[in-house]
Amino acid sequence: PRQTNCEVFVGGIPTQAPEQEIEQVFGRFGKILACRLMRRQDGASRGFAFITYAIPHSAQYAVSCKNK
After folding, report:
1. Alpha-carbon gap, residue 42 to 33, rounded angstroms
2. Which residues lie closer than 8 Å to 27 by C-beta, 6 or more apart?
3. Distance (Å, rounded) from C-alpha 26 to C-alpha 58?
4. Inter-residue contact 7 to 51 (CB < 8 Å)
5. Is the dihedral angle over the CA atoms 46, 9, 17, 12 positive or is it negative?
């Protein structure tokens, strides 16, 4: 069963930032199951992503640390 409240919206990402860099930055808050960098049809970054953590606590921790 999939846990709820594990997905975090991340906005304001520089368009040149690769998914690996986003995962590295947000991985320090907990185990990441998925990092979906949203892209335009031409492949360019849209500047936001959705990160899915293994447990809700990690998602809450990431939000609280990044919203300071």
Report:
1. 26
2. none
3. 10
4. yes
5. positive
Distance CA 19, CA 34 (A): 10
Query: What pLDDT band is residue 1 in, cutting at 50, 70 and 90?
Result: very low
By the 8 A CB rule, do 48 and 9 touch? yes
In the numeric block, the tokens 């990044």 are attached to 66
Q: What is the C-alpha to C-alpha distance for residues 61 and 68, in angstroms, rounded to an integer?
A: 11
In this prediction the pTM is 0.86
Q: What is the DSSP string of 5-66?
A: S-EEEEE---TT--HHHHHHHHHTTS-EEEEEEEE-TTS-EEEEEEEEESSHHHHHHHHHHH
